[in-house]
Design the sequence.
């Protein structure tokens, strides 16, 4: 990605989980870190999220799941982004047990940020990874 | 020796402050400035009058407790919120908890159940049995309470948009056990306003949602007099980022909206007032939380007596459940969470709660394991039986500091309520995005404090142990249980009396279109083994669905 381009992020809440404090705080923090951020709101199906990512032409999709449905909801999103040929980085946050992380990361999730993560660290991670592209 | 606070400041404090303090300013979580110490002068300054402002337990304005005997009569209900995987698994855990000395049940439902989707609906993907027990029909509910006598156990159900359906399912199981409706003791959360503000499990737009809430008030005042028709909740707004002041203000603004809706229906205040109950968090700042609970009792007594003219003292009393603060749990060094939970539970007890849930140490990682839940129950039992804190009523009452803080919280919360009143009430404010914005701003501010190190979180931004071991075992939901749930649901749809089920749904549709109370029609639906999805789809068709607003 050329230096100086603004990174565009979709923050999304897949599934039925309504707890979006984290998603909203991250969305605002990334915006304050100079990115352009779209937040989907709650209760989005994987298909809705992929469609929004395509429509908004984002560089990054940030997913937040606290309900334990990540193993069912994240793979269809990652796969469908790939199928549609979208070169989008996926990061995940929420309550994701350690034992699920490796598999999610092997299957296309770039990084997982659990409770207590620093929003500056998240912003820096995204900037570094995108600059490599 | 100084004769008053000013003298003390001049003679003793000021010379000592040359050495400095740990921080420039000490504030509570709500941002209330804290003085070095409080004395009689501080209470005089706010016009404190013990008899008028505080009084004694069991008497207006109930600051010291709603019952005259409080925990000497009986300890609070130890009520651990539980439900996961399947009706069978959850039934097993309820029996385990009751055997361990728990005194009431608290049911967690999975998200499809909370949102009115059957377990095999496409939106239920991945969510069945995750954050609670899946209930799609009476068959599931029968299994959930199998062998649990509903005339002896009181059950609290965290259920909102589908609250009236779950209440009917509970009553239907009770009926099968031979327990009549007027003997049923329990609570449904039924607080849809805070779902729009913070928790997210709304289905319909506000007007039909308020109708369903009011239907429960009306039905129960005539038929289920022992049942708590609502648990008006500050908990989730606080978890979403609200301060203690906002928690008080937004909860009571919601409560006022429900009362107004019931009065508009033509209900008499004292016919439903005594069955309104509340739910607050017990957060980290011990004294601010205790003051918050004391302020809450005085505020509610004033609101019901002065604003709404309730005559029955039972309508004036604020009865509430408390849960420790999920947001304060850390994924780093989870054992430390036991200490946080203990301090928070102590705040709930010193604040005079009627019922308590203590979170489990592993909840920042996954759903709690059975051993972690047992530790939470033991925490309550130690506080109740070993520490002595339950032996004298409102032991912090009369403390210059606590009384001052109680008054400050009350005043600040009433200021917010005035502001919401001027906007036209909680619903109008919600429509303008007011509460959501205020809460999000507070959440963002808190995140900033944590990241700058101004607010210490042990193990996260200070005192970090990189080598700390992880939590060990976590609870996993077996996918086979989801399949068994779906199989059972499909069997119910096939084997029930189709004619009866069809008629019940047609009648529900007719009632939904009218302004009749919906509860009897729902009751017939659940007893005919109509599913939650079928009942909610009937309402969706007639009421419409709430649009999701992103809100940032």
Sequence:
């Amino acid at each position: 990605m050329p230096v100086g381009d603004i990174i565009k992020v979709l923050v999304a809440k897949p599934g039925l989980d309504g707890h979006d404090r984290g998603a909203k705080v991250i969305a605002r923090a990334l915006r304050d870190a100079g990115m352009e951020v779209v937040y989907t709101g709650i209760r989005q199906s994987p298909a809705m999220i992929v469609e929004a990512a395509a429509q908004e032409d984002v560089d990054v999709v940030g997913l937040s799941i606290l309900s334990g449905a990540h193993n069912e909801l994240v793979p269809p999103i990652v796969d469908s982004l790939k199928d549609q040929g979208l070169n989008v980085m996926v990061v995940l946050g929420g309550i994701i047990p350690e034992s699920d992380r490796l598999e999610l990361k092997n299957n296309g999730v770039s990084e997982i940020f659990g409770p207590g993560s620093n929003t500056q660290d998240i912003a820096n991670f995204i900037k570094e990874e995108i600059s490599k592209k | 020796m100084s004769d008053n606070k000013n003298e003390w400041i001049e003679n003793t404090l000021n010379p000592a402050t040359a050495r400095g303090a740990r921080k420039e300013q000490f504030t509570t979580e709500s941002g209330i400035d804290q003085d070095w110490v409080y004395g009689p002068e501080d209470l005089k300054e706010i016009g404190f009058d013990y008899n008028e402002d505080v009084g004694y337990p069991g008497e207006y304005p109930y600051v010291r407790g709603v019952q005259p005997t409080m925990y000497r009569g009986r300890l609070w209900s130890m009520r651990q919120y539980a439900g996961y995987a399947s009706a069978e698994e959850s039934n097993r855990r309820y029996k385990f908890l009751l055997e361990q000395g728990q005194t009431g049940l608290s049911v967690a439902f999975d998200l499809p159940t909370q949102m009115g989707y059957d377990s095999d609906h496409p939106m239920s993907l991945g969510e069945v049995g995750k954050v609670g027990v899946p209930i799609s029909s009476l068959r599931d509910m029968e299994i959930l309470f199998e062998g649990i006598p509903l005339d002896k156990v009181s059950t609290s159900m965290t259920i909102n948009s589908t609250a009236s359906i779950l209440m009917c399912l509970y009553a239907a199981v009770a009926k099968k056990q031979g327990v009549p409706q007027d003997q049923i003791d329990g609570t449904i959360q039924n607080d849809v306003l805070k779902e729009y503000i913070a928790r997210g499990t709304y289905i319909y737009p506000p007007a039909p949602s308020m109708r369903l809430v009011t239907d429960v008030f009306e039905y129960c005042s005539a038929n289920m007099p022992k049942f708590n028709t609502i648990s008006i909740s500050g908990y989730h707004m606080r978890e979403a980022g609200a301060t203690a002041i906002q928690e008080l203000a937004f909860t009571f603004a919601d409560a006022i909206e429900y009362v107004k809706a019931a009065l508009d229906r033509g209900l008499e205040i004292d016919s439903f007032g005594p069955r309104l109950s509340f739910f607050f968090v017990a957060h980290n700042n011990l004294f601010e939380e205790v003051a918050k609970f004391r302020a809450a009792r005085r505020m509610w007594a004033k609101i019901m007596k002065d604003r709404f003219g309730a005559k029955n003292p039972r309508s004036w009393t604020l009865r509430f459940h408390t849960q420790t603060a999920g947001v304060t749990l850390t994924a780093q060094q989870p054992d430390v969470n036991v200490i946080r939970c203990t301090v928070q539970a102590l705040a709930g007890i010193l604040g005079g709660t009627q019922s308590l849930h203590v979170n489990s140490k592993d909840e920042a990682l996954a759903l709690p394991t059975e051993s972690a839940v047992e530790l939470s129950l033991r925490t309550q039992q130690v506080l109740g039986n070993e520490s002595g804190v339950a032996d004298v009523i409102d032991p912090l009452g009369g403390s210059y500091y606590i009384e001052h803080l109680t008054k400050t919280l009350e005043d600040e919360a009433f200021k917010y309520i005035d502001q919401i009143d001027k906007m036209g009430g909680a619903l109008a404010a919600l429509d303008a995005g007011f509460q959501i914005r205020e809460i999000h701003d507070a959440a963002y501010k808190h995140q900033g404090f944590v990241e700058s190190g101004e607010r210490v979180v042990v193990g996260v931004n200070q005192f970090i142990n990189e080598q700390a071991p992880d939590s060990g075992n976590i609870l996993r939901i077996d996918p086979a249980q989801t399949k068994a749930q779906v199989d059972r649901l499909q069997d119910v749809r096939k084997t029930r009396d189709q004619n009866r089920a069809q008629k019940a749904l047609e009648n529900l549709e007719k009632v939904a279109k009218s302004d009749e109370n919906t509860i009897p029609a729902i009751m017939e639906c659940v007893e005919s083994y109509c599913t939650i999805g079928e009942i909610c789809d009937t309402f969706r068709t007639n009421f419409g669905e709430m649009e999701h607003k992103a809100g940032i």
